[in-house]
Amino acid sequence: xxxxxxxxxxxxxxxxxxxxxxxxxxxxxxxxxxxxxxxxxxxxxxxxxxxxxxxxxxxxxxxxxxxxxxxxxxxxxxxxxxxxxxxxxxxxxxxxxxxxxxxxxxxxxxxxxxxxxxxxxxxxxxxxxxxxxxx
Length: 135
Prior knowledge:
This protein has 135 residues and is mainly beta. The protein is 5% helix and 36% strand. The strands form 2 sheets. A 5-stranded mixed sheet has the order 1-2-7-6-5, with no helix packed on it. The chain is elongated and about 85 Å long.
């Protein structure tokens, strides 16, 4: 039973860049789904507690970095006695290929779910080639 519990716990982010954080907070690696469609790639990341004001998406060279800042919610004039839910920020880095059109990337967030649409570049899209009979 303990193995099942271990599998569903949040994972701490393992960034290829060992930079310093300005906040003393745990940074988790959000779970993502990546779906390739005909004209784009959809990346969906679970980042509970993150909204449009607290998420930062950057693209530098071929690295797409998503970072979500989460502040703990403690009601005013209350004392937190026990906390079983791990609160922390989210960070994940992806390497993009040349098939993504970097100028047309779009992102939305709703209820802690970040959705990034990565349109394919024209050169990467599948093209139908007409075949004719030879005379």
